[in-house]
Design goal:
Elements lengths: L2 E6 L5 H13 L3 E3 L11 H11 L2 E6 L14 H11 L4 E6 L14 H17 L2 E4 L2 H18 L7 E7 L4 E7 L16 H18 L3 H14 L4 H13 L3 H14 L4 H13 L3 H14 L3 H14 L2 H14 L4 H13 L3 H15 L6 H17 L3 H14 L4 H13 L3 H14 L4 H13 L3 H14 L4 H13 L3 H13 L6 H13 L3 H14 L4 H13 L3 H13 L2 H5 L2 H13 L3
Parallel strand pairs: 1-2, 1-3, 3-4, 4-5
Antiparallel strand pairs: 6-7
Helix pairs in contact: 1-5, 2-3, 5-6, 6-7, 7-8, 8-9, 8-10, 9-10, 10-11, 10-12, 11-12, 12-13, 13-14, 14-15, 15-16, 16-17, 16-18, 17-18, 18-19, 18-20, 19-20, 20-21, 20-22, 21-22, 22-23, 22-24, 23-24, 24-25, 24-26, 25-26, 26-27, 27-29
């Protein structure tokens, strides 16, 4: 975070110092102020210089006191701070009291030497630096805001953004979308200090930002509109009003304001960026990419790369999405959301090791940020899914526990923790966690499906069937639940019901289509429909030639039809793929192979 050193005398400028501290905090800048200095074991002068060393920018506020001069020095601590900031090459924003403004003089220096030093000090500031005169605390605050945001914009930095989260595929892919609500301003002013009207417009604009943070979008629109009435060339006010309109669903109004902001300032990258956000939410992905590309051309920010990456992902262009997330990280190594989003793509590609690398980076960064639990907890859940797929059950379990600690109401974490425990053979605990997840989110069909499978594993077929029925009632297109219900129905002797469920799972595009095809082949075998079984097995093998169990099922069907050569070939393939080791039946299969080969002699 950018640090701002606040230099001034203390007792006469207490309210102004407080305003400076509050302003820095509201703009996501860290104030370095004497009010927060710990005991440092050195003199006041050296202690203050150490604090200047920590800062990126100096802000000086000067009225009618010269300030404390420490023994052994001929200048006040305040003037030495100012000089030392200059020696370090820091930009210095200075604010001097307007001599026409009424001021209580009780705290003025009554020492003539101090008064002379103060006059000489102010004269140096007048000659060497751009400075502003202030009157009231409100007047000072408005002018400080303008100076800080102009400095921040010129330094090429951006302010923090408000964030919303989009989730889909219920607990695997998580992408973060950020609203680019920035508080920089771009009032077209060709002089060093703003006029009273421009200052008033800036205060209104800052008020709009505060209303935005409270999600008072109508208030933000009104404040931006008032600012535009005062300064018609206020491109940033148009930009921010457009963002508030979009937040309310007024896309036509948002596009109109973004276009006007761009007309007023063709180099306002944030207006292109926000216009891209609007196109993205409308599903106009090509237009959105064009807008983000223009924003990047003007100012290659991590936020624009990240947003364009999300848009590429939505278009199904994972390669460009990965490239853009990488660019976002290059621009800002603290972009934990870009790591998370890139990790989600690697997860989809089953590149679990790369996914975990990105999730590790995201968690390392996010753990140092003041994030709400609902953001941070998902990074642990994502990593847990990847670890689970690699068979690293203990590590996956630890991540689900961490997610629950961050948010005891996180239903997805309880469900995944239940899955891990079920794989560890701790079925009773797994069922308790599925119950907890369902209690928190009773409309989630996946939770019932997971609980149903665990009930099936412990032999509670009727309980499993009941859970699958509920899952299907909630989500009638839930292919996995149909496949799993088919398994339970088959074991309960309902072969026709099982056939129906497997067929529905196939028509609904089960994510592992070879499973319902293979399962249906087993039912066909049970009904003596061997050719139908062979057809289903062949389709399953074409989909996944590495699925060992399908070969043994097709071998059985070939054997029943007297097609011994074909049966032998499938048994050998089964052993080649490691099916014997997986199912601990290598000895039996080799014995069967010898018997079949003997019949060919």
């Amino acid at each position: 975070m950018t640090k701002v050193f606040i230099g001034s005398t203390s007792r006469d400028l207490e309210d102004y110092r407080k305003a400076a501290i509050d302003t820095c905090l509201s703009l996501d800048l860290q104030p370095v102020a004497m009010e927060h200095f710990p005991a440092m074991g050195v003199g006041a002068t050296e202690g203050s210089k150490r604090k200047v060393d920590e800062a990126d920018l100096y802000v000086g506020i000067f009225a009618y006191r010269y300030g404390y001069i420490e023994d052994g020095y001929d200048k006040s601590v305040t003037e030495i701070e100012f000089d030392y900031a200059g020696e370090r090459g820091m930009e210095r924003l200075c604010f001097l009291i307007d001599p026409k403004h009424p001021w209580p003089r009780a705290d003025d220096d009554d020492d003539l030497t101090a008064q002379e030093k103060l006059r000489a000090f102010k004269k140096r500031i007048d000659k060497s630096l751009i400075r502003a005169q202030f009157t009231t605390v409100d007047d000072f605050t408005a002018k400080l805001i303008l100076a800080l945001v102009k400095w921040h914009k010129n330094s090429g930095q951006s302010y923090a953004t408000s964030e919303t989260t989009e989730r889909y595929d219920h607990n695997i892919v998580i992408n973060i979308l950020s609203e680019n609500i920035v508080v920089n301003v771009n009032v077209i002013i060709n002089k060093n200090l703003p006029s009273a009207i421009e200052t008033q417009a800036l205060v209104l604009f800052y008020g709009a930002f505060e209303k935005w943070k409270l999600q008072d979008f109508d208030g933000a629109i009104e404040a931006c509109s008032e600012a535009i009435k005062l300064v018609s060339s206020f491109a940033w006010a148009y930009n921010s009003r457009g963002a508030a309109k979009r937040a309310k669903g007024d896309y036509d109004g948002a596009f109109s304001d973004y276009d006007e902001a761009i007309r007023l300032d063709p180099l306002l990258a944030e207006a292109y960026h926000n216009k891209g956000i609007a196109h993205h939410f409308l599903g106009n992905y090509d237009n959105a990419i064009d807008c983000f590309s223009k924003a990047i051309e003007i100012h290659p920010s991590a936020e624009s790369y990240s947003r364009r990456g999300i848009t590429y992902y939505r278009k199904g262009d994972n390669n460009n999405a990965i490239i853009d997330y990488g660019k976002a990280i290059e621009n800002d190594p603290t972009q934990w959301m870009a790591y998370t989003n890139r990790g989600s793509i690697y997860y989809e590609q089953k590149n679990y090791d790369r996914a975990i690398e990105d999730y590790n980076a995201a968690i390392a960064i996010a753990s140092k940020l003041p994030l709400p639990p609902e953001e941070f907890e998902k990074a642990y859940l994502n990593r847990a899914w990847a670890l689970l797929n690699l068979g690293k059950l203990s590590e996956a379990l630890n991540d689900t526990i961490q997610a629950v600690e961050l948010n005891p109401g996180f239903a997805d974490a309880y469900e995944l923790q239940g899955r891990v425990l079920a794989q560890l053979g701790r079925n009773k605990q797994a069922l308790e966690l599925f119950d907890k997840a369902i209690e928190l989110m009773p409309s989630n069909s996946h939770f019932y499906d997971s609980r149903g499978w665990t009930k099936y594993e412990i032999g509670n077929l009727e309980g499993a069937l009941q859970d699958y029925n509920i899952a299907i009632d909630i989500a009638p297109s839930f292919a996995e639940a149909y496949n799993n219900r088919g398994i339970a129905r088959k074991d309960l002797g309902d072969l026709e019901g099982a056939l129906e469920d497997y067929t529905l799972a196939i028509h609904l595009n089960h994510p592992r289509l070879e499973w319902p095809y293979n399962n249906r082949s087993i039912v066909h075998m049970g009904k003596g429909e061997f050719w139908k079984a062979i057809i289903d097995c062949t389709v399953a093998i074409n989909m996944n030639p590495q699925s060992a169990n399908v070969y043994i099922n097709r071998s059985n069907a070939y054997h029943q039809l007297g097609m011994v050569t074909e049966a032998i070939a499938d048994l050998e393939k089964y052993l080649e793929l490691g099916g014997g080791e997986q199912n601990n039946d290598t000895k039996e299969i080799k014995s069967l192979l010898r018997e079949l080969k003997a019949t060919l002699r």
